[in-house]
Each structure stands twice: as structure tokens, then as C-alpha cells.
Write a structure and sequence with these properties.
alpha/beta; 51% helix; Arc Repressor Mutant, subunit A; six-stranded parallel beta sheet; 10 helices; 6 strands
Length: 221
């Protein structure tokens, strides 16, 4: 069971999403219809995942995302928006969202996305993952790119192998099958890598991998 909060300014949509999540076994600990309300209720309810619309009164979804990821503990933010515009996607991810679905997604896609987001995976509507990876690659070539240098933490060979597959966009299940490991072992490797690099989520991990060149293919796709 995952503790989930649903934020949307349309009551019927908000209630429908909350109902679907509750019926699937998740614990809906709070709902909110404005950005300011979302920040207040998240601080009290401490959800693990926040399903968040971008178009909100008072505070925008991007502003709410920044506030949420600054909390301790910080929830994972899964944006559920009517907009599939590239600028909206990139702005949300840069603010700290770990996933982005458009509202045309099916109920099954939403439920899967919430479960994967709770596990720390980056989840995107098909076609958007490539956009995010492309933007990270562009940013990594900028002169201000935050590279490792001699003081960078040392990853084990297995951690590096898992990180490379994460950067390719594979799910934990796919990585486990590729490397003949258990799903839990893959999660542990990712968490250890996050701790070593002092990063907070899989999106930041992908950006690090690209900046360090770890995402380069080790075999034909």
C-alpha cells in the first residue's frame, strides 16, 4: 500500500483519480484543489507519492513540486496533466518531478505509474522519456556541466552497470531480467548509488549518468 495524495482543481477528476487509487489498494491520505492547499496538506499527511496537476490556482504545479521535493521526507511527484507540451514536461522535471503522464493515460497506466513512482522509478508518457533524456544530454554539454572530477564517489562495477541501464530508460524489472538479478537487488544497487552520489531520485541519477558518459551504449540496442 502506498500513501498517495491527489492534487487537481477539478473536483470530479480529483475524486475519480482518488477513487481509482483507493480501489487499487493505495491509501489516499489527502486531496487538494489549489497549490497552496497541496503544500499545507502534504506537510501534514506525508504522502509517499503526490499525483499532481500542473494548472492550479494560487501556486502552479511547478511551484508546488519545488516545495514538495524540499520537504523531509520528500514525496515522489507524479505529474498528471492535460498538457503534453515539451516546455511543461521539462519545467516539471527540472523542478523535481520524477514522472509525467498526460491525462489521456488509461487507468491501468496511472496505477502502474504510481506503483513505479513509489519505487523510485522515473515514469513518463511514451515519447516524453526521450525528450527528457535529450534535454539532459544537451545540458551536460554546457560549460557549467557538473562533472565528477577526481573527487567523484567511486561506484562498483555492478552499480555502474545498473546505472547505465537506468540511464537507458529500462525499468527495474527489465534491469533485473537483463542482469539476472532480483528486483530487490536492483533497487538496492540504485539506492546505494543515490546515497553515494547524494542524489534524491532516478531523474537526477539519469542526468548524472549522462554527464559522466555512463549512459553510452555497451552493446547494440
Amino acid at each position: 500500500m502506498t500513501r498517495v495524495m491527489v492534487v487537481d482543481d477539478h473536483p470530479m477528476w480529483r475524486d475519480a483519480v482518488a477513487r481509482d487509487l483507493a480501489e487499487a489498494g493505495h491509501e489516499v491520505v489527502a486531496t487538494a484543489g489549489t497549490g497552496a492547499e497541496a503544500v499545507r496538506r502534504a506537510a501534514a499527511a506525508r504522502p509517499e507519492v503526490v499525483v499532481l496537476d500542473l494548472q492550479l490556482p494560487e501556486l502552479s504545479g511547478v511551484e508546488v513540486t519545488r516545495a514538495l521535493v524540499a520537504m523531509d521526507p520528500a514525496p515522489h511527484v507524479l505529474v498528471l496533466s492535460a498538457s503534453g507540451e515539451h516546455a511543461d514536461v521539462l519545467e516539471a522535471v527540472k523542478a523535481g518531478a520524477t514522472g509525467y503522464l498526460v491525462k489521456s493515460a488509461s487507468r491501468e497506466e496511472l496505477l502502474s505509474a504510481v506503483a513505479r513512482t513509489a519505487a523510485g522509478e522515473a515514469v513518463f508518457t511514451p515519447g516524453l522519456a526521450g525528450l527528457v533524456l535529450g534535454e539532459f544530454r544537451r545540458l551536460s554539454t554546457a560549460p557549467t556541466s557538473a562533472g565528477g572530477g577526481s573527487g567523484a564517489p567511486t561506484l562498483t562495477e555492478r552499480e555502474t552497470e545498473v546505472l547505465r541501464l537506468v540511464a537507458k530508460g529500462l525499468s527495474y524489472k527489465q534491469i533485473a531480467e537483463r542482469l539476472v538479478l532480483s528486483h530487490r537487488t536492483v533497487q538496492n544497487h540504485v539506492q546505494n548509488t543515490l546515497n553515494k552520489l547524494q542524489l534524491h531520485n532516478r531523474v537526477e541519477l539519469v542526468r548524472y549518468a549522462i554527464e559522466q558518459g555512463i549512459d553510452q551504449p555497451d552493446e547494440p540496442a
